[in-house]
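Researcher: First entry.
Model:
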Amino acid sequence: MTAAEQTAPGIVPTPSFSEALRVWFKIGCLSFGGPAGQIAMMHRIAVDEKKWIDEPRFLHALNFSMLLPGPEATQLATYIGWLLHGVRGGLVAGILFVLPGALFMLGLSLLYALGRGFPVIDGALFGIKAAVLVIVVEALIRIGRRALKTQFLVMLAALGFIGIFFFDLPFPLIVIVSALVGYVVARRSPAMLGLSVETEATPAPVAGRWRQSLVAIVVGLVLWWAPVALALVLLGQHHVLVGIGTFFSKLAVVSFGGAYALMAYMAQQVVETNGWMTAAEMVDGLGLAETTPGPLILVTQFVGFLAAFRDAAPFTPLTAGLLGAAMTTWVIFVPSMLWIFAGASYVEQLRSNKALSGALAAITAAVVGVILNLSLWFALHVLFGKVQEMHSWIVRWYAVDVSTLDVAAAGLAIIAGLLAFVFHFGLISTIVVMAVLGVAVKMLL
């Protein structure tokens, strides 16, 4: 029995595999606008236009995807593909959702690595930095409005910010502690987390689901770690490709809250701990990722490309960069599909589990605080030429030399804010305008 047959009540007659393939490729090429825009487009095509899946089943799939670490839009596409055509449908949907954006991001990474020093490119990147500040603030406001439904959730967001900004707590630790708090509170007082106090009936489990999950877990783990193990055997444990594979595999496990939440943890790790790039380059990477279709988490590919490009031995820089980008993309997206295939047969039970929903609500609230940390970290490093991380016992803070304020960058950031919040420009339009203004400023200075 196929996945579609098992879930027939929520699905209209299944489209042909070739038709689904064409539609998923179209979605992958047009999926601009971040997770919200991508999910809205999938809803319009899969529910309204093609009528492949009904509204309750779509929302059910979305809820399941948001329970998992990883890019929720990619996982939603994978799950809908699984519903329609089983494992092959899920693979095709997930891969085609990511592939166009990944190829586009690879081209931009290559252009970035080889094109630095040209006034037009440097100017465009200068303007995009200002747009990125506004984009992150917009994400903070949007996610905060959705996530902070109660005073308790606001408190969790504040604690998340204090923990990561002032005490330099690891993002994975914040995720784990928030999940535990949410799990406990949901069992005792779900209203504190904005959850309904009514109990939903738990549907009957899918027959043989443990076997399906076991196969998915074993196959998924082997595929996930195979390239990292190969690099370890051939190149040694200290090679940059092994470091990239290990770091981004860890990131894939704790990637709750989307790319903006991860950026705070990732940026500080790749800049301050691993030394793979500068803070300004990290902002450039996010700006480039905003211009591509596909999940925003493809910014990780930019990091992997530059890290390997600059530490290329025994390869040429171009070959190493391509391998670094491929390694990053693989270990980020294979786990996100693994969670779907391992948990899809349990989705009904997960949906009705209030304690698990409470854990997710608490994580999402803490993520708001983490994104606030990211906003401040980006602002400091974009607007000031000299920012030094300081420590007083267990407290971390940033010393800023106000005399190094970049007036041009501040002016562009104000213009980007006006475009986004006053004139309501779209994301891509804002980036394009700011790139042009950045070129103009660089030409005049």
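Researcher: Second entry.
Model:
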Amino acid sequence: MTAWTAAELDRIDGTDELDVAPLESDGTLRPPTTIWVVREGDDLYVRSWRGTGGAWYQAARSTHAGRITSSGLAKDVTFTEETDPVVNHRVDAAYRSKYSRYSNYVAPMVADGARATTLRLQPR
């Protein structure tokens, strides 16, 4: 498995948003969706604000592959479902800390519906 470089982690973590384009079942990339991203240690995580009904999330969960773009960096990634409650609590804390100025939007991102969609991004 490939790991993120420190420069990549810092670059992506230093921005509020990234564009995520999961692969469709036919191997083409979906149109990008702009979402929030958080860093926990040496890993990056995303969630679907719409919960499991989010179209980008459904595609990511189906194919487990796609591309992200953030701050001029484009990277092919693998999406891995994160179910560890300890990690998810840390991801909650990362969302609260990074996006505290958007309090109306943070609450849904740390609620059960969004938490159930936590995906770890791994570079391919």
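Model: Note on the second entry: Helices lie at 6-13, 55-63, 85-98, 103-109, 112-115.
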